[in-house]
Specification:
By secondary structure, the protein is of the alpha+beta class. It has helices spanning 4-12, 57-75, 93-109, 159-167, 175-186, 192-197, 212-223, 243-252, 268-278; strands at 37-46, 78-88, 113-121, 125-134, 150-154, 204-208, 226-230, 258-263, 282-289, 293-297, 303-304. The strands form two sheets. Strands 6-8-5-9-7-10-11 form a seven-stranded mixed beta sheet, sandwiched between helices. Strands 1-4-2-3 form a four-stranded mixed beta sheet. Bound molecules: adenosine-5'-diphosphate, thiamine diphosphate (TPP) and magnesium ion.
């Protein structure tokens, strides 16, 4: 096994054209674009908690970065720099090489520089700090939703957790659907372009990591408002899956990394154009209410029972 410093040099220290100084010194040196604000976020992935220990390392590398870039996307930030702190099991340089391959593939796709980190031996644990830029005043926070705003979600929430249920043998999906759902679980697409398009369009946004209703609940709480969600406005459930499980995954499954956001009704034409340009479906699933709380309605406007809350590390679902 190579030394710690050989590992860093071989796998993690790559050119950083967007930094003053990248990996190799005690700190990286970064020069933000003059006049821009920095957006900073960190998320950790722990084997057995955030991913199955046998997950393919290349996909895990991608996902480790994706879940962090997703938080930048939710604020409308342009991703610029990341630091990667990892505890890796010893004696498997091939594993580390594959992990780095997946991580850097996504970094390159979004023009993000890996400017530093930390590499230790230990139980597999991955922590990224991501930094992005925003024009001052244009960040999309969780707290800006207003009564009568529309409530939107991107993409197809629920596929990732359906994939997890399949991987854990809790359900058996047909081959094509299993491939789609496992891809959603292992290779989420951080919605950075969508987030940037939502600047000055959305009133509030959050990325859906813990489950659609749970994360919308966080946004509502921060905005001190409520919402009604129309079940018949949600994206169609995937064909061939157990409909009850598919619905539970859609509403509460987590691991989606789509964006949920609110916007005044006047933004509907803009959002239709954004969806067309990005080739990403945007679903208008409900509206914000002045009264707090989340209500789920059927097509007749009748209230339906709310399923279990979103993912919480310290409470069983
Ligand atoms: N240990 C901590 N110290 C300070 N702030 C924290 C800590 N853990 C989480 N937070 C903050 O609490 C908020 C909610 O965290 P989290 O649910 O992990 O958000 P996200 O889904 O965006 O990752 C975030 O603003 C995060 O920065
Ligand atoms: C092995 C395994 N078990 C359970 C899950 C489901 N899961 C784990 S963490 C999580 C929520 C997201 O993680 P968190 O640390 O809350 O991310 P954050 O909200 O901070 O971005 C979900 C849905 C999973 N992906 N893999
Ligand atoms: Mg977090």
């Amino acid at each position: 096994m190579p030394s710690e410093f050989e590992l860093i040099d071989r796998h993690f220290a790559r050119p950083t054209p967007g930094a003053v100084l990248g990996p190799g010194d005690d700190c990286a040196l970064l020069q933000p674009t003059p006049g821009m604000q920095l957006a900073a976020t960190t998320d950790m992935l722990v084997a057995g908690v955030h991913f199955l220990p046998e997950t393919d390392p290349e996909r895990l590398g991608w996902k480790t970065l994706a879940v962090n870039l997703s938080d930048l996307a939710a604020m409308g930030a342009q991703a610029r720099w990341v630091l990667l702190a990892g505890a890796f099991p010893e004696d498997d340089e091939d594993w580390i090489a594959a992990f780095a391959k997946g991580f850097f593939a996504l970094a390159q796709l979004h023009g993000v520089d890996v400017v530093g980190g930390d590499t230790t031996r230990g139980p597999l644990n991955l922590c990224v700090t991501a930094l992005g830029e925003l024009p001052p005043g244009q960040a999309i926070t969780r707290s800006g939703a207003r009564a009568e705003d529309d409530l939107w979600v991107s993409g197809t929430p629920g596929l990732a957790s359906l994939g997890l249920a399949h991987a854990q043998h809790k359900t058996q999906l047909a081959d094509d659907l299993a491939t789609t759902c496992l891809e959603a679980l292992r290779r989420p697409q951080p919605r950075l372009a969508l987030g940037r398009s939502l600047r000055r369009v959305a009133s509030a946004a959050i990325d859906v990591s813990d489950g659609l209703l749970g994360d919308i609940g966080h946004l509502l709480e921060r905005s001190k408002v409520g919402a009604e969600i129309r079940m018949d406005h949600l994206p169609p459930l995937p064909q061939g899956a157990d409909p009850e499980l598919a619905r539970a995954c859609q509403l509460g499954g987590g691991d989606d990394y789509e964006l949920a956001f609110t916007a005044p009704a006047s933004q509907r034409p803009t959002l239709a154009a954004v969806a067309a340009v990005l080739k990403l479906p945007l679903w208008r699933i409900g509206r914000i209410t002045p009264a707090p709380g989340l209500r789920l309605l059927d097509e007749q406007g009748q209230e339906l029972p709310l399923p279990a809350k979103g993912f919480d590390h310290f409470h069983a679902a």
